[in-house]
């Protein structure tokens, strides 16, 4: 697909009305007669177009953002910030600044998401602004590393909290048990997201309130603890603050990791009802709420646990509960498990749309751009990412892969936001339902550049590996995308694979609005 094809917001607007009968088979879809240029059986004639459904409203949008941000991170790993900065007060300042930075980035994504109302998030914006190769490299990193490893880690986190009560504290959970339960969970949530989207979105609404309730419980317990006079951890809050820019940037990474997900609703723009209103509203509601809750939750943690206790803890929320909740402390691991389960479901749902859009643009096998004729979901993309996630479960240390690629991911986010500045210069007349002040993307790009460049001298090996993983994608780009005149036997094998997958998943290529 040429780059210019992505420039018209209306060229692929998704429409669908409910089915009135069972969808036709693949052969019927391919051979249906046309009338005045419109295929009979389309939305214009009998409401059976094979397109993505617009089934997400404002509440679902908020639930998606909160569902992915409120994963297990805030319950497990806030120690990353305090370990780098060394002071309670500086830690809280970092959490506030991370929230502000996420809000600034989200405002930029609101402009991008309404000016380019396409699913795919960062991939779609990089493709539109900078062309095919940078977009492919982002997709390469995301599909090979970011997405499947994140799914694997969320699945393992859920499995560890579910299995922990069945093992004595001195007995370690068998690795094979963790991997099996994580694999079953990933497969189950992939199945739900493939065939029961309405069930999934309603489940996200319920889990969202469960997660917020868990964090509110932690905040209230911490507040009561402080009101009883236990505020000694806040004496001299900025004493022994770390001043090394490299360590401060790593502290930002730890904080930003817990905020990760604020841009994931942009992956599903084409399935959002009235995206020009609901996309920015969901962002404006979610990000201030997240920032406030995160800062208050960290105050509660720091009131109950000293910095050395936080650094030594493997799961801060559990250590917190054991210290102040007594017999009710079991509620915390239950909440963490629910949170990880919901976060995994949202991540599976949203990331599959990026894979779908990449395939639609010719950057991945075409079958991944097909949609189930029964459920109107990108079933092949969901199955593909499920398989990659299960493969990552057996990798010796998936956390290392995340470390290698986290700085690269930050670079691509910076590149996405820089597209706001680029479009202001190259397309001043571009339709922008939301238009932010230029200082907002400028500040975000400068801060991201600092966060990308400074860690090079702190963790040069990790940065180098992240860059290497990205560069490995270049030969795949030229072989898979640029090389069009492939031998007949290669093209025949690709066609056979595509046809087989179509029959296996009962899927068809998306029909576009003329």
From TrEMBL:
One of its GO terms (cellular component) is plasma membrane. The gene is LOC115620894. It is found in: Cell membrane. Pfam families: AA_permease_2. Keywords: Cell membrane, Membrane, Transmembrane, Transmembrane helix, Transport. This is Large neutral amino acids transporter small subunit 1. Signal peptide: none annotated. Belongs to the amino acid-polyamine-organocation (APC) superfamily. L-type amino acid transporter (LAT) (TC 2.A.3.8) family.
